[in-house]
Design goal:
This protein has 80 residues and is α+β, with helices and mostly antiparallel strands. 44% of the residues lie in helices and 26% in strands. It contains 2 helices and 4 strands, in the order βββαβα. It has a 4-stranded mixed sheet.
Length: 80
């Protein structure tokens, strides 16, 4: 999940909610507006919605070679 910077400057910051025993209940986004205490912390790593979509698309298209390398490595390990 990425920190998303909307056109109006609002940041959507990913946040996970866990139970008392540590089990994941869910993932969501919290919106921070300029002036919020944590805004300046998250701003440098934020991406526009377009940049986030481009990264997701690149990961999907560029992942094929990485997956082939991993499967070849895994097969080597199983043969050894």
């Amino acid at each position: 999940m990425y920190v998303i910077r909307l056109a109006d400057g609002t940041l959507r910051v990913p946040q996970s909610l866990t139970s008392e025993d540590g089990r994941l209940i869910g993932n969501a986004y919290v919106e921070l507006e300029p002036g919020d205490p944590d805004y300046d912390t998250w701003l440098p790593e934020s991406l526009t919605e377009e940049e986030a979509a481009e990264r997701r698309g690149r990961w999907l298209t560029d992942n094929d070679e990485l997956e082939r390398e991993f499967l070849a490595f895994k097969a080597e390990q199983e043969d050894a």
